[in-house]
TrEMBL record, chain A:
It is a peripheral membrane protein. It is an enzyme of class 7 (translocase). The lineage of its organism: Bacteria, Pseudomonadati, Pseudomonadota, Gammaproteobacteria, Pseudomonadales. Keywords: ATP-binding, Cell membrane, Membrane, Nucleotide-binding, Transport. Its EC number is 7.4.2.9. This is ABC-type dipeptide transporter. GO terms for molecular function: ATP binding. InterPro entries: AAA+_ATPase, ABC_Ni/Peptide_Import, ABC_transporter-like_ATP-bd, ABC_transporter-like_CS, Oligopep_ABC_C, P-loop_NTPase. It catalyses: a dipeptide(out) + ATP + H2O = a dipeptide(in) + ADP + phosphate + H(+).
UniProtKB/TrEMBL annotation, chain B:
It comes from Pseudomonas typographi. Keywords: ATP-binding, Cell inner membrane, Cell membrane, Hydrolase, Membrane, Nucleotide-binding, Repeat, Translocase, Transport. This is Glutathione import ATP-binding protein GsiA. Belongs to the ABC transporter superfamily. Glutathione importer (TC 3.A.1.5.11) family. InterPro entries: AAA+_ATPase, ABC_transp_ATP-bind, ABC_transporter-like_ATP-bd, ABC_transporter-like_CS, Oligopep_ABC_C, P-loop_NTPase. Pfam families: ABC_tran, oligo_HPY.
Length: 327, 347
């Protein structure tokens, strides 16, 4: 990767203060996304995947959040940006879509008004031209009869249509980076696949970089070039899609893949299962966060956080015993 | 354990006949409209099986679950539990609810925050006349059975447990009155994948050791396939297909079932889904389309599909689909000729 990456994150740490507690939500994340690359961040609730994504737009409330580490987006040091510079970045450089469009869209404005406002805020243009551009944005996400939908309110649309409208809104200012936070989780199966295919087609047509956060590894397989698996606020394994699926090294990745075997779950077979639940972010264990649930854990795992080791040039894993695990 | 199998193994545990539930929409001026949530469905749950129920939002699967549990009253139709009419003198509602229990999706809101876990599990049996002491003993046994060490968990409250642990308590509570049928309404959908696997294994173990029958409702076809003996597919308040799991996955008859199966992500990066099998969202169950309700999204729809409502037609052993293309003489260009019916084993 000689070219400058779209996103470069080094040793990102995010802490929330809640009540008297400090939640260690992200504990040293390193990642990089090339231009035109799709990275899927997968993990369970509390793994830090959404917190990492939101940190990339500095969406966390500044008073109760402490962010450490370095975040660069399109070469800009995000932590050093002023409020005004940040606003210039949100939209034209990086845009975000969310799980629940009904909450992300403003209920009192039509879809058209919301897209037009965004467009005119970043690029002064006459109202008529903005309306034409908004119409084009709706066409690009293949909303049927876009002329009518432009004047529709979010509640007048179906779930899949709203998700398309939110994607249109996010892409209206032609960002280079799309941050997608569980965009298909709330959708029905037959609608989910439509949105996944749409995202993939838009990504290819526009050369977008995408960070796609999901708990569903199967959805990630449909869109991602590379997968990063998160657990307890750290990336425990990262590799190109096929490599990760065929050659998983971290015990947690293996468990995740075991819940979704390629040829489907077979009736009668027992599921691969591990005891316990994801860790409490207010009381993370001293060593590897997965150690209390890991069948291969040793004393070393319980006392020291494993370093990131390279399996291959583009495949890294964070486990003391990765090269000694049974296959 | 009081009375058990009454009608013998061939008698379905639960027979659902012409079950119908419409909800009036609230407010609005002028015409009142109704949500046709469950629109006259017939099916059976056999003794000892797991019947999977799948469908998208608005298909009526959760309303069906609530009707089966009699949490809401049907507008019309009947439930027959082991040959006894539910709500009649043979099987009063109170007795029926001892035999049928339910586990909900939201493990937190389905537990009383002011009860300890042992009190929560003991509550049902004591309502049904078991002494307090015995009910608490039974609760502790059950907590152990669902994998929660009673000495550690009996005195805890719902907020002190993780999602997976709470769902185990909900399962223990459902089992506390020794039901024969357990309705699992999206019971693992809110759990993380690594925890979901634990709970699915637990459900399988309990079913085998207690000879339970499950109705397993989920939007996740992977999980339904893993657990179910038969699968019932619903669309806009109606059953579109029902059949043995294997047959349904290998030879789905209804275009909607086929689309649902094709919509499952492949887990194979070399073979990604290129074309979505359907466009658009499921229509609203308010004013569903006339004729076959799926015709507005169906790739094989013809003019006749907007007029004639298809009937569930047998297409193989214990396999039924409601589509004009499998219904003899129905007028679709693919319909088999009139009089031709599948002559294998009957249902």
């Amino acid at each position: 990767m000689s070219e400058q990456p779209m996103v470069a994150v080094q040793d990102l740490k995010v802490r929330f203060k809640r009540g008297g507690q400090t939640l260690a939500a992200v504990n040293g994340v390193n990642l990089s996304v090339a231009r035109g690359e799709v990275l899927a961040l997968i993990g369970e609730s509390g793994s830090g995947k959404s917190v990492t994504l939101r940190a990339l737009m500095r969406l966390h409330a500044e008073r109760s959040t402490r962010i450490e580490g370095r975040i660069e987006i399109a070469g800009q040091n995000l932590m050093a940006l002023s409020r005004r510079q940040l606003q210039a970045l949100r939209g034209p450089v990086a845009a975000m879509i969310f799980q629940e469009p009904l909450l992300a869209l403003d209920p009192v404005y039509t879809i058209g008004q919301q897209i037009i406002e965004t467009l005119r805020r970043h690029r002064p243009m006459p109202r008529a031209a903005a309306r034409e551009a908004a119409l084009e944005a709706l066409r690009s996400v293949r909303i049927p009869s876009p002329e009518q939908r432009l004047d529709a309110y979010p509640h007048e649309m179906s779930g899949g249509m709203r998700q398309r409208a939110m994607i249109a809104l996010a892409l209206a200012c032609q960002p280079k980076l799309l941050l997608a936070d569980e965009p298909t989780t709330a959708l029905d199966a037959t609608v989910q696949i439509q949105i996944l295919i749409l995202l993939r087609e838009l990504q290819q047509a526009l050369g977008l970089s995408i960070i796609f956060v999901t708990h569903d590894i199967a959805a990630a397989v449909e869109v991602a070039d590379r997968i990063a698996v998160m657990y307890g606020g750290r990336i425990v394994e990262q590799a190109p899609l096929a490599e990760l699926l065929n050659n998983p090294q971290h015990p947690y990745t293996r468990v995740l893949l075991g819940t979704r075997p390629k040829d489907g779950l077979r009736k009668g077979e027992r599921l691969v299962s591990i005891p316990g639940a994801p860790p409490d972010l207010a009381n993370l264990p001293a060593g590897c966060a997965f150690a209390p649930r890991c069948p291969q854990a040793s004393d070393l795992c319980r006392s020291e956080v494993p370093a990131i080791e390279a399996v291959l040039a583009d495949h890294s894993v964070c486990c003391h015993h990765w090269n000694r695990l049974p296959i | 354990m009081t009375q058990r199998d009454i009608g013998g193994p061939a008698q379905p545990l639960l027979r659902v006949e012409k079950l119908l539930k419409h909800f009036p929409t609230k407010g609005g001026l002028g015409k009142r409209r109704v949500v046709r949530a469950v629109d006259g469905i017939d099916f059976v749950v056999r003794k000892g099986e797991t019947l999977g129920v799948v469908g998208e939002s608005g298909c009526g699967k959760s309303t069906t679950a609530r009707l089966l549990m009699q949490l809401i009253q049907q507008d019309s139709g009947e439930l027959v539990f082991d040959a006894m009419a539910v709500g009649g003198h043979q099987l009063p509602l109170r007795e029926y609810r001892r035999q049928v229990q339910m586990v909900f999706q939201d493990s937190y809101s389905s537990l009383n925050p002011r009860l300890t876990m042992e009190q929560a599990v003991a509550f049902g049996p004591s309502v049904h006349g078991v002494s307090q002491r015995e009910a608490l003993q039974r609760a502790r046994d059950l907590l152990g059975r669902v994998g929660l060490e009673p000495t550690r968990f009996a005195g805890r409250y719902a907020h002190e447990l993780s999602g997976g642990q709470r769902q185990r308590v909900n399962i223990a509570r459902a089992l506390a009155v020794e039901p024969r049928l357990v309705i699992l309404d999206e019971a693992v959908s809110a759990l993380d994948k690594s925890v979901e696997a634990q709970v699915l294994n637990l459900l399988l173990d309990l079913k085998a050791s207690l000879q339970l029958t499950y109705v397993f409702i989920s939007h996740d076809l992977h999980v339904v396939r893993y657990l179910s003996d038969r699968i019932m597919v619903m669309y806009l308040g109606e059953i579109v297909e029902v059949g043995p799991t294997q047959a349904l996955f290998s030879a789905a008859q209804h275009p909607y079932t086929q689309a649902l199966l094709t919509s499952m992500p492949s887990m194979d990066p070399g073979n990604r889904t290129r074309v979505s099998p359907l466009s658009g969202d499921p229509p609203s169950p308010i004013d569903p389309p006339p004729g076959c309700r799926f015709h507005t999204r169906c790739p094989h729809a013809e003019a006749v599909c907007a007029q004639a409502a298809p009937q569930l037609t047998t297409t193989g052993d214990h396999h039924y689909a409601a589509c004009l293309m499998v219904q003899p003489g129905a007028g679709h260009s693919q319909s088999p000729p009139a009089g031709l019916i599948y002559t294998g084993a009957s249902a």
